[in-house]
Amino acid sequence: xxxxxxxxxxxxxxxxxxxxxxxxxxxxxxxxxxxxxxxxxxxxxxxxxxxxxxxxxxxxxxxxxxxxxxxxxxxxxxxxxxxxxxxxxxxxxxxxxxxxxxxxxxxxxxxxxxxxxxxxxxxxxxxxxxxxxxxxxxxxxxxxxxxxxxxxxxxxxxxxxxxxxxxxxxxxxxxxxxxxxxxxxxxxxxxxxxxxxxxxxxxxxxxxxxxxxxxxxxxxxxxxxxxxxxxxxxxxxxxxxxxxxxxxxxxxxxxxxxxxxxxxxxxxxxxxxxxxxxxxxxxxxxxxxxxxxxxxxxxxxxxxxxxxxxxxxxxxxxxxxxxxxxxxxxxxxxxxxxxxxxxxxxxxxxxxxxxxxxxxxxxxxxxxxxxxxxx
Length: 375
Description:
three-stranded antiparallel beta sheet
């Protein structure tokens, strides 16, 4: 049995859909298992079905245990109740995602369970080069899918109702584009869900996934964010396309403003830049172009209505943030999105998103695709 000198441990009970347990263990498993830290060492306890794979795939510093050994040695079928006896630790720090029912069972047994202040693994905000390479691969796959979307729009015809038409004569719809993108990701070993292909006024709601026929002359917001089935790391990228010249002249003005804001905020990025300052730079740039954040007569938010960006890694949204609420300097090694946008139900939405690595003296853009509105 492991012994702890300070008698305080750290514990996660989850499957690897939980980004913290995947980060701590390096082991990708659908079924729930335990990750725990005791006496400065890291352990996982898995079922016999996963034991050999865990020994091969978990981080080299992580010690793998058969959960049945813990159950046999403590005589407790509930491994969470047996773990304190097995380790000599009766106080456990858990992430805020730890199930309340689990915490209640442990507390009822006299075990101290408390969440920690802040992130369970704050070091996740800084990616090492191995992590960056995994994200780089995800972004290459994401960019290939975005080019596929662009080509579908480019090749589409336009019928008498201004709707886009595929070569087989069927309408080009948000649903069709989304299904093609998500099927291609699955063939590449990625999973994408709720891919945003939002045309026209639907694009004015930033997270509307879009439905129905796509139309010429209207902006089409395309936000693609797949997760690697193997590594768990995400890609994230947005482009906005328009088949032919936009019907509403505000669309081109908004695109030019968003593009300028993206370029200005990207130019600020390097280690030490403050997240709030980068966001505010983009916001001021678009305000100077006449796009102020406001609510229209129906109470719908318009303009630049969200943060400029967020960290991306084992979660699609993680630290650090490019937002008014982040007064902290960005660390070298952070991977963040830069995604200024403008939204108005009168004409739709424009969003442009790159994913970048913060470096000591600047940034590395993981996107190479051009930003062009008209296709």
